[in-house]
Every structure is written in structure tokens, then in C-alpha cells.
Amino acid sequence: MKPGNVLILPGWQNSGPGHWQSRWEAAHSYTRVEQHDWMRPLRGDWSARLEDVLLSCDEPAVLVAHSLGCMLTAAWASHSKNTRRVKAALLIAPPDVERDDVRQMLPGWAPVPMQKLPFPAVVFCSSDDPFCAPERARQFAAAWGAEFIDAGPRGHLNADSGLGDWPEAHARLQQLQNLNPAVTAP
Length: 186
Hints:
About 40% of the residues are buried. The chain starts with 5 loop residues before the first strand and ends with a helix. It is of the alpha/beta class. The radius of gyration is 15 Å and the shape is globular. The chain is built from 7 helices and 6 strands.
């Protein structure tokens, strides 16, 4: 798999230079899906942008989503006719966009799509994520048909979590990249 077909999907406000997503992008030449407005994310606009980038890929991509990028992945997959363009997804720290405080920060992202994803996925969640209780993240993973991994008490699994290059999660990404294409066919 070409490194450029690993798509980085940051969440609200993008991922800064110390974030593991940015570090992976720099170290491995992965492709960041740039959104038109990181501060006021619109679900439809973000989904359309992801669709455009996926249609330009020359082979199925692996999505590497953080926070709102996880909700983007689930929302896009629930309506796109091009889900075969995704080989697998690594979903890190999904926020509970149905929770009142998160809904106020991110209007228009509820409800959470709870359909099974048509590609393999892994969800990492912290046991003390301020934007999603671990029980709720487990519900998302179960609904999406994803493997669930408890990353322990590490906050929102972002730059503030001190993860650096986060080799544990990168190893899971490499496993997803190496999946047999027949396994990922919807």
C-alpha cells in the first residue's frame, strides 16, 4: 500500500505539530484530508471533501481518524456509494456528539451513525476521555463492527496525552494496511 493512500482525518481544530497524526504524516508521508473550515466543521462539507479525496486515490485507502474524524468516517460510510474505496479504518477517541456539552461545541453532528461499517475498523478509547465515556465508545465500536481497544487513562489521545509517535497505535495501523483486499470487500 502506498503511504499516500493512508488518509489522516483530524478532528475539530485540526491536529497540530505535536499530535501523533501530524507526526505520522511527517514520518511516513501519509495524506492529510484538509477541510475548508477546521473551526466550524459542517458534517456535509466534511463528508463531501472526504468523498472527493477518496475518489482521487488510485487504490483503497486506510483512514486514520481522530475525534471528530471518527464521526466523519461513520457519517460518510452511512451514505456513500463508494465505501469500497476504504480498505480499513483506525478510529481514535470518538467524541460523543450527542452529549449536551459536545453538541454545543459541534452542532449538526448528532445523531451518531450507528450502522456497521462496511470495512474493518479498530476503535481506540481512553478510559478518561473528557469528550466520551468509555462505555459510550464501546457502544460505538459494537455498532460499527469494530474492534475496541482501551488505551488506559490518557485523556483525549491527542498531543496533550504525551503519546509522541504512539507506536502501539501505529502497529495496529500497519496491520490494517496489510489486510488482504478480499477481507475488505463490502
